[in-house]
């Protein structure tokens, strides 16, 4: 099938995106008049982002679930 495969998540995302495009087309008068936002010239600010390695994450049991079936890590 190639790189583009249909799955449940992509189908669930398609409907709201289609409705947004149609709504914008109604305001623009024609669906071809929709203007997209420009691509940002810079990436995320390194001062506002971080990477926490998996080995340093502290997982705790979540609720009354069996061991290792549901755990959360505070990031």
Describe this structure in words.
The protein is of the alpha+beta class and 75 residues long. The chain has one helix at residues 8-28; strands at 59-61, 71-73. 0% of the residues are buried. The model has no long low-confidence stretch (mean pLDDT 77).
Task: Name some characteristics of this structure.
2 strands, about 30% helix, alpha+beta, two-stranded antiparallel sheet, about 80 residues, about 10% strand
Low-confidence stretches: none
Radius of gyration: 21 Å
Number of helices: 1
The oligomeric state is single chain
Structural class: alpha+beta
Total beta-strand segments: 2
| Net shape | flat
Strand adjacency order, main sheet: 1-2
Short summary of the structure?
The protein is an alpha+beta fold and 75 residues long.
Secondary-structure map with pairings?
Layout: H1 8-28, E1 59-61, E2 71-73
Antiparallel strand pairs: 1-2
């Amino acid at each position: 099938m190639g790189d583009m495969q249909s799955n449940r998540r992509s189908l669930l995302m398609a409907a709201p995106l289609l409705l947004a495009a149609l709504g914008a087309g109604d305001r623009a008068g024609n669906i071809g008049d929709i203007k997209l936002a420009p691509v940002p010239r810079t990436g995320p600010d390194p001062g506002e982002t971080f990477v926490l390695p998996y080995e340093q994450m502290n997982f705790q049991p979540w609720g009354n679930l069996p061991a290792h079936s549901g755990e959360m890590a505070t990031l």
